[in-house]
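FORM 7B: Structural annotation worksheet

SECTION A. Query
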Amino acid sequence: MASNSSIIPLLLPEDELLCPICQTLLKNPVTIPCGHNFCMTCISKHWKLAFASIFCPYCRREFPSKPVLKTNTVLCAIMEHVGKVFPTSEIVLVPDEKPICNICEEGRELSAVKTCVTCLASFCSVHATPHTTSQALAKHCMCTPVSDIKDLLCKKHSKVLEVFCMNHGAAICWQCTAKHPKCNICSVEEMRTDWKAAIEPVATEAQDRKKATSELLEALNTMSEGIKNAAVKMTEDMQLCFEALMNTINHAQDRAISFIEAEKMEALQKTEKQKERLDDHLLSISLLMDKIDECINNDSYFNFLLPLPLLPAEVGQLQDVQLDGQAVERMILDIQQLNSSLESQLSTMLQRREEI
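SECTION B. Predicted structure
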């Protein structure tokens, strides 16, 4: 807002240069005993309308009597400088489309917070105070601020629309009731009271339902967490079961393979013994053939006196050594049947669970 040449930040915070009542730059500023600053006109009007007690509109501090208002000359000098830095055209407090207070000084109006149907005027938060503090004004009909007071008046008689015709569903003034002799009519205030009485149980029921729904949602969230935790526990248990089953299968597999390995070792030992026997026989034959060659090559006169070499006993037929294929085949068949049975049982179990 302020230019770089402004000295205001060196003197006061910018929010202290605004009147708490009209929310614009202070005009003819005065300082009241509690230390807060106001426009002379704004605070004077406020205290003029205050029937019950005299208090500061900003901090609500009460004073035993109306303070004497004197212009704060130092603040006046500051505001004179501020007026040059902050052009009035830049200060826009109330948009045109919002209802404004009918009591505020022209050009410095605040937004209206209530409209009094009895007074036919709209008031800002400050000027609406008498209607809440004065017993004389307590019975006035206050409503949400309206942009145009004429909307509350009969277009024909310019009277307040205080009556509601039930038959025509329209608000009328008392003068218009002459044209509704047979209609069921009542005051707008009664309609407002009845409507408020009718909506209160609905609001209470809505609040109760909101609370109940919130509780149900909380219970549902708790239920969801329980489901998640239970699913985690079930998954862990299921994994342990299948791990145990896999361990059993792996253990059986190891035993079956060990059986085949043992059969292999036993069969190889038998073949190794036969091989050793054949190797020994082959060595004996080789030695015998060497002696035979020696005899054949002996051309002495009495070679016939040499002993004839004797053939060793025949080795006989090889012993047929085979793995116990039948035992392995029976084992494989049993495993296949077990696998088929297990697969069928698991399928039936899971299908039954899905049907549930």
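SECTION C. Observations
The helical segments are 8-11, 40-49, 73-85, 130-133, 188-297, 325-355. The chain has three domains: 14-85, 114-185, 205-323.

SECTION D. Sign-off
Analyst initials: ____
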